[in-house]
Amino acid sequence: MVYQISVACVFIIHCFLLFSVDGRANVPAIIVFGDSTVDAGNNNQIITVGKANFKPYGRDFEGGKPTGRWSNGRLVTDYISNALGIKPSIPAYLDPNFGIEDFATGVTFASAGTGYDNLTAHITTVLPLWRELEYFKDYKEKLTRFQGKDKATQTLNEALYIISLGTVDFLVNYFLFPVRSLEYNIDEYEKFLAQNAGNFIKDLYNLGARKISISGSAPMGCLPMLRNLNIVMGRTCFEFYNKVGRDFNEKLIKLVDNVRKEVDGIQVVFSDVYGPVTKMIQNPCLYGFEEVKRGCCGTGMTEVSYLCMLAKSLSCKDPTKYIFWDALHTTDKANGIIADILVKTSLAELI
Q1: Closest Cα partner for 79 from 230, 266, 253, 276?
Q2: Residue 170: in which H helix or E strand, if any?
Q3: Are 37 and 164 in contact, with CB atoms under 8 Å apart?
Q4: Residues in Cβ contact with 194 at an 8 Å cutoff, skipping those fewer than 6 apart
Q5: 78 has catalytic annotation
Q6: Which residue of the set 35, 95, 169, 326 is catalytic?
Q7: The model's pTM
Q8: What are 281-324's pLDDT values in tens digits?
């Protein structure tokens, strides 16, 4: 009896391992588009103030090297790549230290500060989403020369595409500059962004993408920078901004459902980041965090980019106790937790 159970267990484990290997084999590469949440250093190569290629950024990355990632270590997409057994981190397409042999298994075209609205990138002087798409077309040509037409087509069809942006459209574009807010009310602007997102997904599909994950907004009102503006209420989360994020996410969820019905052969999912980040903020002890209101860099209340460098001596000693690295971005540890949740939920449908 014991022998029969043991054999059964071995058989089940063997099948599980085979399934895992086959599942990973179906994702030969991870291809990323978006903003600072997934930019691994593309902004290093363009003229913009939106950079993070200096310390203390990257202090917990390999060798303590600041790569341009907006964190103390790896990004969510790096952790996803590692979890799928592809490679430990995803390089930026404009990074001269990497070539097509590296990009063939994973690449990010993301540019910190961009959005679904082209005006957002114009305001922040970074790469607009249409430019990220143009770089992808260039990548597709290089991949075809590197792998051959049939192999490259297979890679592009089976790759996992991750899209992560939207927050900058609201915080910088809509609420800070009086342009879009004069054209649209907030509900109309959310619909405008969702429409742009839908068009982008279809553009990717026409270029070979089949497995696509799209993320919307995190709880914007709980970002340290916005908390710091809410002094009267004790630096609690700004519910107004959180509601904007939730409403926008709902529109993206509906978009995903519509695209699934309209486009044959596409697999597209909405990857919820709002929920996991909110749970970490509300129950920090469950994840080993101690600080939820401030970031690690500088005073943790307003510092982002160069301000982190100027206030480097004030940075925390142990970022593993912090959810946020700077006033807008999450830490390496938080990114790892988010990635683990996504791999087990929405991304499980694609991998």
Answers
A1: 276
A2: none
A3: yes
A4: 116, 248, 251, 252, 254, 255
A5: no
A6: 326
A7: 0.92
A8: 999 999 999 999 999 999 999 999 999 999 988 999 999 999 99
